[in-house]
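User: Can you help me understand a structure? I only have the sequence.
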Amino acid sequence: MQPPPAEPGMREEEVDTPALLLDLDAFEANLDAMAALLAPTGVRLRAHAKTHKSPVIAALQAARGAVGQCVQKVAEAEVLAWGGIRDILVTNQVVGARKLARLAALAAIAEVGLCVDDPAQVAAAEAAAEAAGRRLRVLVEIDVGMGRCGVPAGPPAVALAQRVAASPHLIFAGIQAYHGRAQHLRAPEERAAAIGQAIEAARRTVEQLRQQGLACPIVGGAGTGTFLLEAASGVYTEIQAGSYVFMDADYARNQEAPPFRQSLFVLATVMSVAGDGICVVDAGHKAVPTDSGMPLVAGRPGLIYAGASDEHGKILVQDGPRPALGEKLRLIPGHCDPTVDRYDWYVGVRRGRVECLWPVAARGAMA
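Assistant: Let's start by predicting it. Here is the structure, written out as tokens:
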């Protein structure tokens, strides 16, 4: 872990860069907005920690009614459980005896679960739970259009759920029905059509489970781009949005973008003004990912982040004055999740002053 790039009370322009900046007013407004939007629906929030990787943020979400957290990796589950989070779902398949043993061990201090899409995964989870003397919650993942993991909806999902329910060491907890690609379909009618198909697949599966005497307490899925559709469906019981706490440039490209404020930034310093019509900042590929496009320069539409190398970001000055050497710029990352995973610390700022420093405790937790 690197030393923090700032201290409480420091002015924002004094923060060492590159730094992961969290605008606390916008961040807290996002937490409150999600809670307010879900309250009348009766649908629970199980926020996704793959975005923030922080027990501190998970606790703030819980304080506003979140029933638990999602993660993608066992290592993320460990960090959250050790940080006091008591309800964690791995929204992923966990393969490998060592990983399953670690997950089963966490059941001593938290309610933990995982997803399956194959009978061999069920058998392996069963063996790990038995060895640990614990019971694990299991969701059957169905493919609702992602084309990645998940059994087909309907009878194949029911058969796998019956296999889970028959185990004395596992608890059938429901289905995982997440359509990730729908989150970034630009037109609202495209998102609605994609999620409509997901809702129907989940509805059909829940009904067929009921016919076989299997209750389905959790129907989980949804993300920041579509959660209002799933919440209004009458089928989904848990929303797994994660990016809403931060937002990013890619979500902002959606027509009718999610109703949240940009709160996450990469703070960068202008390190060169030697070239005509350009400036160079100290935030390149290693500071801000470009898998979802180049970052934007917050509040400066005349500045275009045009290209990145390892440690340099080239900014074209298309309108307005060129930033001065040493000036600090806020960059809006294209994709918030991998941006967070590059940093050891959140620098929380409010009205131009550093208020807090939070560790990105699950940074690099890929196992």
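Now, to help you interpret it: The longest strand covers residues 264-272. The chain has two domains: 12-20+259-359, 43-247. Let me know which part you'd like to focus on.
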